[in-house]
Amino acid sequence: MTRFPLSSRVQPSRRARRPTPWRAALSLAVSLLISAGGPPAIAKEEPIPCEINFSALPHHVPANQLSLQQERALHALATNPAEAEAFLKSVSPVAAGILSTVAPALSVDIRPVWGGYRGHTGPSLAAHFPPTDKANRLAAALGYVFFQDSVLVQCPTDDAIETPAYWIEEGEESDLLNQTTLKSLYGMMIGEADGDLHLGFTYYPQADRFLVLALSDRPDYERGVVTALDRQLRQFSEGRADITLLKGTKSVRFLANDWRVDPKGKHYAETYLSDDLVARLSVFRAQYLSALDALAVPPGPASSPLAKDDEIP
Predict the structure, then answer these.
(1) Rounded-to-integer distance, Cα 232 and Cα 212, Å
(2) What does pTM read for this prediction?
(3) Residue 191's domain spans which residues?
(4) DSSP letters along 89-104, please?
């Protein structure tokens, strides 16, 4: 883990921007949340286990896999982050069962996180576990059961790619990073990236850490964006933000399945899972679908079913 100068600026200078609602909103949030503090805390490096980032809220409706009621439930969750977060917590035991089926002896810790991508922010889940050669199989099983377009594996596997990672960690003297301010923070980050919606983040509430992986093909692109975000937070808080900007390296790999092309999860199943394992995972798929049924979203204009090729925000 490496601290890099907060004054460094990798991004080219940009044209002056007009005030935008998210800037005003964050400015207000900072004035309400920030408390007086001393110098920024220096975060200590901790052993980082393997991690799988996933959700139980698919981005696309898989054709012929869900009932209309289940589709309505997903649509309602996509528009209500608080209910979505509660639902993800309720199906965490299903995720734990999936992982223990794939790797019975592996110790896994599933925690709620928040993420942002394509301009949207929302809750998701992260599974932490010791390094294992079953990381891809674990991720594929989660992606298969929960209809995930993609699952991010952060683990030193043979097919992983080493990539820089930049994150902002917050100490106890301020509260800039939280679920309330994430949408505004993400707006600031996209603004610094000139509207690049492919730039994403993960926020870890328990560690109070805002992470951005350098996944673009432009050297130091993400570094410049995160550096600018850090600088703006310090400016908004008038230098009282208890935050530290850090750099590290992650081993990453994305596993994916296009459910509009392969509605039965063919890529996950045939590439990483055995026929026997797919059969055993059907139990957890049934539990997941039952959890959607239990939401019992009544029909109506606000919860009309999505077309099979519609994207859930």
Answers:
(1) 16
(2) 0.80
(3) 165-249
(4) HHTHHHHHHHHHHH-T
